[in-house]
Amino acid sequence: MKKTLAALLTAALLTCLCTAFAADPSASDWAQDSLDQAIALGFVPEDLQSAYQQDITRGEFAAIAMQFLAAQYGYDVENFYFALTWRAAQDPDAPQLESPFVDGVSRHVDWAYSLGVVNGRRMTENEAGLKRGTFDPDAPITRQEAAAMLCRAYAVYGGSLEDAAGPSFADTFTDAGQVADWALDSAEAMWALGVMGGTGDGLFTPLGLYTREQCIVTFLRLWQSGPVSRAKDNVAKLEGPSQEETIAYLKDGPSGFPFNVEKRWDTKLCVVLYGEYGGMPAKAGPDLILVYPDGRILRVDDGIPAINPRGTAPNLENLTLSPDETTLTYSVTYTDRSEMDGFVYHEPGVYRVSLDLATGKATLTVTPLNP
Questions:
Q1: Whole-number Å distance between alpha carbons of 218 and 205
Q2: CB-CB contact of 132 with 105 (8 Å)
Q3: Tens digit of each residue's pLDDT (9 = 90 or more) over 283-323
Q4: Which of 122, 135, 147, 120 is nearest to 208 (CA)?
Q5: Residue 199 burial by CB count (10 A; 0-12/13-18/19+): exposed, middle or buried?
Q6: What is the Cα–Cα distance from 62 to 169, expressed in whole angstroms?
Q7: Which of 107, 180, 192, 278 is at a distance of 20 to 30 A from 337, taking alpha carbons?
Q8: How do residues 225-269 score in pLDDT, each as one tens digit?
Q9: 54 pLDDT above the threshold of 70
Q10: What is the CA radius of gyration of the chain?
Q11: DSSP letter (8 states) at residue 9
């Protein structure tokens, strides 16, 4: 419920343009098909689906790695994080979220660090055992660093370096001796599995930089070629919460923000929760959350614009469940225009939403009102 009418029209136009020009001019010809496959599999974040020949940063690599891991476990990334957070709360032996970095990194980086996929830089540990340091999220990564992080990601869902057997790395690459000791086993494994290749002329180029498209393509190869993979249906299930456990956990307040339920509908497709998070530093307004029988959640993004520049969501009106329990309809009425510094937050109008409970897809229609 954060978008303006102008933003909606722009998004629709961009969608048409993207459909008409499917091939991204920023991608190399050799990578395009693989990029399309990786996007279809769901492990390329939307904000990294461009500028493919640009050097990838440490933060971007972590984001792709986490979305890749979510796909390996059969989750979208939001529900993957929810399942990990819930498991951490239930089991002290489960991976616990750590945020040791002082340079303002993201939850992708924090979880990638907590799962052992990435390491920090200049890390210190105090007498209480608390680790602090930097991550350098905007720094580029080298090919040997990429090999190490790919191997660590593979290990998260049950992969092992012992899975790799192939031609001699040292006999294949004339610069094999330049690979750092800490990265050598990983580079050999990624080469043996066909995940990483050379750079030509018998070179591996361990200190060469890594691009976005190279990162995405190698994750796709790991998906396709790794002996352990969802593609082979042999990744152990990551147990998440049940439907009622999810609802209880939301109410208890993961991360200190309890969801206060104002209305609840128990339908044949999902449980619909309407309420507002407590403990927030600024009022965010109400949310709609769908909780499915397998415990997964979907926070509804219906396109209704916010009340103000802070992004406060409006109260929903006329919430009505269809007789067959498949659709929820509701509306919001704005009688005035909200604008600040030339940016329009909403126009006067009646904003009506039809929400498909099976898919979570919201269809928004706007009837303008005279201000």
A1: 16
A2: no
A3: 678 999 999 999 999 999 999 998 887 778 899 999 999 99
A4: 147
A5: middle
A6: 26
A7: 278
A8: 999 999 999 999 999 999 999 999 999 987 778 999 999 999 999
A9: yes
A10: 23
A11: H
* Contacts (Cβ under 8 Å, ≥6 apart) of 290: 270, 271, 272, 273, 297, 298, 300, 357, 360
Q: How far is 155 from 68, CA to CA, in rounded Å?
A: 13
Q: Which of 44, 42, 49 is nearest to 18 (CA)?
A: 49
pLDDT tens column, 119-147: 998 888 877 777 888 999 999 999 999 99
| Residue corresponding to tokens 């191997």 | 151
Q: Which of 361, 347, 353 is nearest to 6 (CA)?
A: 347
**Helix, strand or coil for residue 353?**
strand
Between residues 209 and 312, which one has the greater pLDDT? 209
Report the alpha-carbon distance of residue 275 to residue 259 in Å, rounded: 7
* 219-245: burial string, b at 16+ Cβ within 10 Å, e else: bbbbbbbbebbeeeeebeebebbebee
**Model confidence over 95-112: pLDDT tens digits?**
888 888 988 778 999 999
DSSP 183-222: HHHHHHHHHHTTSS---BTTB--TTSB-BHHHHHHHHHHH
Task: Look at residue 3 in the predicted model and tell me its pLDDT.
Answer: 41
**Quick one: what percent of the chain has pLDDT higher than 90?**
70
Other Cβ atoms within 10 Å of 12 Cβ, number: 10
Helices (H), the chain: 5-20, 32-41, 58-72, 77-90, 107-114, 143-156, 169-172, 181-192, 212-225, 243-252
Q: Are 305 and 4 in contact (CB under 8 A)?
A: yes
Q: DSSP assignment, residue 308? A: S
Q: Residues for the chain: how many in total?
A: 371
Contact 202, 173 (CB under 8 A): yes
Q: How many CB atoms lie within 10 A of CB 60?
A: 22
